[in-house]
Amino acid sequence: SNIPKIVILGAGYGGILTALRLQKELNYNEADVTLVNKHDYHYFTTHLHMPAAGTDNPENARVGISKLIDEFKIDFVKSTVVQIRPQDKKVILEDGTLSYDYLVIGVGGEPETFGIPGMIENAMNIRSINSVRLIREHIEYQFARYKREPHRTDYLTFVVGGAGFTGIEFIGELADRIPELCKQFDIDPANVKLYNIEAAPTALPGFDPELVEYAMEVLSKKGVTFKIGTAIKECTPDGVIVGEGEEIRSQTVIWTGGIRGNRLIEEAGFETMRGRVKVDEFLRAPGHENIYIVGDNSLMFNPEGRPYPPTAQIAMQQGVTCAHNLVASIRNQPLKGFEFKNKGTVASLGKGEAIGIAFGKKYKGRFAALLKIAIDLRYLFIIGGIPLVLRKGKFL
Ligand code: FAD
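^ Those are the sequences you sent over. The predicted structure of the assembly is below.
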């Protein structure tokens, strides 16, 4: 048929918003839309620090894609993309091939380990529902092991590499979980060590210094030992080597120190910086008028010329613009340039504690924690309306 084919790769923040907007804006038979995702559910990456630490159930961090999209309007294909072939306008899946007229790439990023030896092999990452189930089980298992071999203090030593948003949010949850696990396994909490190691001269680089200080104070009180301005030199099966060669023995290293673009993008032949494509103002890959890239795989610069950090917030806004531009292309109407509207940022520090900047103001403590909940609920509302808010919303 002559109906244009739109294929969306990835049902993360960018991909799902693109799909939902297309579903709303396209007229009947104006385009064929196919959404491809590795799993039959969408997960809330921004919530994964909780199930990773075990302070929430992984079920609260995901929702079935069939609950979000109208399958009469969008074809959903559960499969893994193995290759993108812009020259042939084709996408190779693990179990088939799709051809497209327009492509949206939203497959999310990958951990960046900056070549630190052993990090890929020996550390775990907070990336998906499966990866956080592994982390949660692994942590509990260390407590069980320690009961049999109480001389092995490395079982109760937990290392978080990176004090960016993910590292800080995760260690806050983990610090909340430790007393519970200690009680459950009859272990003196004094035996547990939590390290957060960051190479940059400050935790939460780029964030307001007063709020950063507050965050470190809250987390230190919860038992976190910070090593800031300290690079991890190597990650081994026995722990990490830091700074000038100090060894921290640990059976649990969680790496949150960086995100890069997906390897699929480089392999497709796009020009990239750390795996990301510098897209044009309409979110298209340079030289490809029919390929849009949203979320962690796109690179965009603010008016001052600094790259926007990859966030769910920008991915969602890109999804909206991307859908608008796809519809405009199909209708031969002018495209709209992307403009990021910063709605603020809130980082949680465990139960009832957070820091953030919103509405041009700084917030900390209980109110910031409520803001975080409000942001999460707003997201549930945007993608799934009131029913999803009621099913997945955590109110306090
Ligand atoms: P993702 O949301 O990562 O989704 C990618 C999708 O593609 C997934 O569904 C995946 O299964 C699928 N996929 C991947 N590979 C393939 C393949 N080969 N084939 C098929 N499907 C595939 N951002 C904020 O704005 N605020 C926050 O508070 C915040 N907190 C965070 C906390 C944590 C713990 C983490 C890890 C991140 C946080 N972020 C936050 C960052 C944010 O989660 C990411 O920037 C965002 O998820 C990027 O969205 P995306 O659409 O690019 O991809």
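The longest strand covers residues 32-37. Residues 124 and 145 are 19 Å apart (CA to CA).

Shout if you want it in another format.
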